[in-house]
UniProtKB/TrEMBL annotation:
<dbReference type="InterPro" id="IPR010930">
    <property type="entry name" value="Flg_bb/hook_C_dom"/>
</dbReference>
<dbReference type="GO" id="GO:0009425">
    <property type="term" value="C:bacterial-type flagellum basal body"/>
</dbReference>
<dbReference type="InterPro" id="IPR001444">
    <property type="entry name" value="Flag_bb_rod_N"/>
</dbReference>
<feature type="domain" description="Flagellar basal-body/hook protein C-terminal">
    <location>
        <begin position="251"/>
        <end position="294"/>
    </location>
</feature>
<dbReference type="InterPro" id="IPR053967">
    <property type="entry name" value="LlgE_F_G-like_D1"/>
</dbReference>
<keyword id="KW-0975">Bacterial flagellum</keyword>
<dbReference type="GO" id="GO:0071978">
    <property type="term" value="P:bacterial-type flagellum-dependent swarming motility"/>
</dbReference>
<feature type="domain" description="Flagellar basal body rod protein N-terminal">
    <location>
        <begin position="28"/>
        <end position="58"/>
    </location>
</feature>
<feature type="domain" description="Flagellar hook protein FlgE/F/G-like D1">
    <location>
        <begin position="139"/>
        <end position="200"/>
    </location>
</feature>
<dbReference type="InterPro" id="IPR019776">
    <property type="entry name" value="Flagellar_basal_body_rod_CS"/>
</dbReference>
<keyword id="KW-0966">Cell projection</keyword>
<comment type="similarity">
    <text>Belongs to the flagella basal body rod proteins family.</text>
</comment>
<keyword id="KW-0969">Cilium</keyword>
<dbReference type="Pfam" id="PF00460">
    <property type="entry name" value="Flg_bb_rod"/>
</dbReference>
<dbReference type="InterPro" id="IPR037925">
    <property type="entry name" value="FlgE/F/G-like"/>
</dbReference>
<keyword id="KW-0282">Flagellum</keyword>
<dbReference type="Pfam" id="PF22692">
    <property type="entry name" value="LlgE_F_G_D1"/>
</dbReference>
Amino acid sequence: MPKNINESFFHGKKFPPENEVILLFRGFYTAASGMIAQQRRTEILTNNLANVSTPGYKADETVLRAFPEMLIQRLENQALPGTANKRLPRLSYVGPLNTGAYVQETIPRFQQGDLEETGFSTDMALVNINMPENEAGFQGTVFFTLENPAGGILYTRNGNFTLDGAGYLTNAYGLYVLDDQGNRIRLDSDRFQVDEDGWIIQDGAPVARIGVAFAENPLALVKREDGNYQWEDGVLPSAYGQGNMSFLVKQNHIERSNVDLAETMTQLLTAYRTFEANQKIVQAYDRSMDKAVNEIGRIG
């Protein structure tokens, strides 16, 4: 490309100025980043739909954020007044560049799900009655405690439990359910009762108390596989004896997913249409660049 592209002619036409080329690529990258963000949002929404029937599942929400703007300047030569061949470099202002949006983070929505009666004695659900808000304005919540095979404790709202062959209370994926002392719970049979305070009563006597932990800031939990969560700063405190909050344990019930099917379908359709709109913009820029390279810049 010649040093002064504004003085170059191809078939009697000027080559596009640098400002126009920069504007072309500016829109290209903005639209492309919009496609990537909407694709990621679509993946999260479809995962929510796939778990609409998963007990205790908490829907994920995406937070979109714009990339920081950048100021573009071009270095060029400017002729000195009264001189023929002397030029000095100077910066020419082009304009701000916004390279689009991206998915900054994914946040679970910990609102209470509806209860569903199952009739199975091993099924349990947690019901939030009074949950205090933290400094950030988010409500805390409670979780069942599970033994983590890799060490430590996992937390879940999925109370779809069962008894294994040895009589231990486990979840649907074979993880042991813990009591309020961090021990495994072993029962003689599935003929037992669980009161609203979490006590497991068998043959008229209390056997153990279901382990329930309280998370003041549930957004700080790390999401693991199978809908479980982990607290990486140690162990969450027990929810029993917390004077500023209250909850219930409901036997023969499970907590349904809090995914709103109609709302999620609407958001999914919106994300798809936004992706499609950005895709058409990218295709239009691609045709413009193809024309600039193969027609305007062609030497006959």
